[in-house]
Specification:
It is a single chain. By secondary structure, the chain is mainly alpha-helical. The chain folds into two domains: 153 residues, no CATH class; 119 residues.
Length: 273
């Protein structure tokens, strides 16, 4: 019997939007760190491999819980080993280069991943914004990691940027759920109903915008930091009063990806200019 080790289901994440929560902080960290050398290359490899390993691990749990056929077991184990070994090799390289302190950033991923896998085993992993926000917070650790590699040491700036990215991710996820909720509405809601549906997204984005303004006022961040957070706030305001009735999820995802790209570009520019 021939074992099938290639499987898109095992090797490639099915949640395409999750790439945004890795790509954005990774780019931000590398550019704000201001260095590009072997350590940064190893960080990218380690982050990508660790991120990709979630897919075969999730598939493995689905197989063990009888949600997927056992014929996919070989592929799940193969890709889990491949991605795991690559991540370990890159992590070892970072340790040899004196950046072993970054490995502590992996620890928060353990309980978050465990929670996710437990939900998978119970067929309850879908539509869990809390888990998604925590997962995006774990991925955002690559931003301070990239900054600290460039600076040569841990700094408060890295923690500040991580915190800001977590808040942006949370607002983005909450807003995405609002749009998905709107698309299944039977009819166009009135203004009061629109506001009731969108109030959570508006509160998240308004909090972020106000916090950015406060940080600027306290001289703890660049003067134009608020501009990056204005983008998601404006999108939430637009989306609240322009419900996405019958809009395909792919269109919602693409629009939010564009917002994320604009945020990332502006966030980088306000820190380096």
């Amino acid at each position: 019997m021939t074992l099938k080790i290639w499987s898109k289901q095992a090797a490639i994440p099915t949640e395409h939007g999750s790439w945004v929560f890795l790509r954005s902080p990774l780019v931000i960290g590398l550019l704000l760190g201001g260095q590009l050398g072997l350590a940064q290359v190893l960080l990218v490899i380690a982050a990508l491999a660790a991120f990709l390993s979630r897919q075969p691990l999730t598939l493995l749990i689905k197989i063990l819980s009888k949600r997927r056929p056992s014929s996919e077991l070989a592929a799940a184990i193969f890709w889990l080993i491949v991605f795991g070994l690559i991540a370990l090799a890159a992590a070892f390289g970072l340790w040899r280069l004196g950046a072993g302190y970054l490995l502590w950033l992996v620890l928060p991923a353990i309980p978050v991943m465990s929670w996710h896998l437990w939900l998978v085993s119970r067929r309850a992993e879908r539509r869990k914004p809390g888990v998604e926000i925590l997962g995006s917070a774990v991925l955002a650790f690559v931003a301070p990691a990239g900054i600290w590699l460039g600076q040569g040491e841990m700094s408060l700036q890295g923690w500040l940027i991580w915190s800001l990215l977590v808040l942006q991710n949370a607002a983005s996820i909450v807003y995405a759920y609002l749009r998905l909720e709107q698309r299944v509405l039977a009819e166009q809601p009135d203004r009061a109903a629109q506001l009731k549906l969108g109030i959570r997204a508006l509160l998240y984005t308004t909090f972020n915008l106000v916090l950015a303004l406060v940080l600027v006022w306290l001289a703890l961040s660049p003067s134009w930091l608020w501009l990056a957070f204005l983008v998601q706030w404006a999108e939430a305001l637009y989306g609240t009063f322009r419900p996405a009735l019958k809009v395909k999820p792919i269109k919602i995802g693409i629009r939010q990806m564009v917002v994320s790209i604009i945020f990332t570009i502006l966030f980088i520019l306000v820190w380096i200019i």
